[in-house]
Write a structure and sequence with these properties.
This protein is of the alpha+beta class. It is built from 2 helices and 4 strands. The strands form 2 sheets. Strands 1-4 form a two-stranded antiparallel sheet. It is elongated.
Amino acid sequence: MEKIEPQAVVQQNVTMFPVLVNLDNREALLKPGMNGSIAVLIDEHDGVLAIPNDAIKNPREAVATGAMLGMSADSVQNELKAQGFTGG
């Protein structure tokens, strides 16, 4: 993938982000104007515990969950601040 445009384009109530990709088309199967779809994997980590954002409702729950994962209360609070969380 070459580039994902930062500005969305809305057409017929569908929000799209233009993407520039390079494809191997040696067999000439793709023609100009053809549609396509892709899946983009942003990040992947093996052997880690994932907790849905909806599972943690407030900073106190975040600190308790962090403790179960071996994180100190200070590191959780710092991460909350870094993420811009200001709620109570």
